[in-house]
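FORM 7B: Structural annotation worksheet

SECTION A. Query
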Amino acid sequence: QVQLVESGGDSVQTGGSLTLSCAASGYTYSAYCMGWFRQVPGKEREGVAAVAYDGTPNYADSVKGRFIISLDNVKKTLSLQMNNLKPGDTALYYCAADSGQMPLWPCANWQSAGHFGYWGQGTQVTVSS
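SECTION B. Predicted structure
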């Protein structure tokens, strides 16, 4: 059984930094994509960043240059380093993982929540001005 457990959410001021972590257990796919989504009440879940098993990253335009996604392929641990945080980054952040269903281009559909079959419970990030 696949489990994703996020940690690292907190409350920070504008300009601050946080690092989110996601520990995956029972996840045995080889050519996979893992990512981070965020959601605020009343809005759809938004793709923030994703990384393929080979380390190739993808970022939403809103976080490029501020967030860094990384993957420990051995430990199956996903991280999201968030710098220069803004109030607009406030959201519940979710870790997501797919089923390795696109081995030639694992993160081709990374911005679609429907691409991912496994989700964590979420960790809250609050950025105050």
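SECTION C. Observations
The CA atoms of residues 47 and 111 lie 5 Å apart. The longest strand covers residues 18-25.

SECTION D. Sign-off
Analyst initials: ____
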